[in-house]
Amino acid sequence: MEDTARTVVCARANRLQAGARARSKRATMRMPTILLTNDDGIGSPGLRALARTLAEIARIVVVAPDGNRSGVSHAITTEDSVGVTPYHGIEGVRAYACTGTPADCAVIGIGEIFEERPDLVISGINDGPNLADDVNYSGTVAGAVEAVLLGVRALAISLASDPDDRSMARQWESAAEQARLILPQALAELPPERYWNINVPNRAPEELLGRRFTNLGRKRYGDTISRSDERRDARYYRVWNLPGGGDSEDPDCDIGAVLHGYVSITPIAIDRTDREELNRLRLASVPGA
């Protein structure tokens, strides 16, 4: 009887200890730290929606341009100093307006504003898609790329709205919720020197068909050049603000996935080396060698 009582007491003590360890572990679990930036500017409704949504599950700091920097790609500021001032327009979130580019914002946010390196950088939510060849021109994507170059994993997220149609309703909250849902997987699975380029259809949450991992498509902008004016010896053309032509409706491609109503997630490597061609060239005979 005494042995039975001792066994019950020990079992109960073990359960209490296990429960205490679990509670202690939960108490000490650290919220992820995330730097937010964009290219639409710190006053962008997409950035505000993203910050509000992610602030519920992560420690957020915002460093974003003080005005619109769309289409600046990976431009950096070299000749002038870059100014950073506190911004109080996002309630409950520490935020700074930066006079530089999205790449500048990533550098300053990671290197100066954060006490420790953030767990992740998220650039967006962009007003308009960044699909296919857009990644080469996008300031939103450049914010993510610069973070990866600095050793911090990153996401670029865009809402596939029509930026030229100001009457179109923007589903910012829907895109922000997708970022929240993708975040745990990104923190667990996103490898070094990679970023995910995410495009969310401009639809309400219940109208989205799901999420797909996709490859980059192709867009053709050069086909849409038009002459807008000619004065004396100067000719004027409109190129980049005209729509590019997409090449695929395949839902395994980022363009096709968004057209069908899927959230597109494209994993992109920073190293652009063509490994297959490199190996072929190394194995080929070199004249004069």
Give structural notes:
This protein has about 290 residues and is α/β, with parallel strands linked by helices. The protein has one domain (about 30-220, about 250-280): Stationary-phase Survival Protein Sure Homolog, Chain: A. It has 7 helices and 13 strands. The chain has helices at about 1-30, 45-55, 100-115, 140-150, 170-190, 255-260, 275-285, and strands at about 35, 60-65, 85, 95-100, 120-125, 155-160, 195-200, 210-215, 220, 225-230, 235-240, 245, 265-270. The strands form 3 sheets. A 9-stranded mixed β-sheet has the order 3-4-2-1-5-6-7-13-8, with helices on both faces. The radius of gyration is 24 Å and the shape is globular. The termini are far apart. The model is unreliable at about 20-30 (pLDDT under 50).
What is the gist of this entry?
The chain has seven helices and 13 strands. Strands 3-4-2-1-5-6-7-13-8 form a nine-stranded mixed beta sheet, sandwiched between helices. Strands 9-12 form a two-stranded antiparallel sheet.
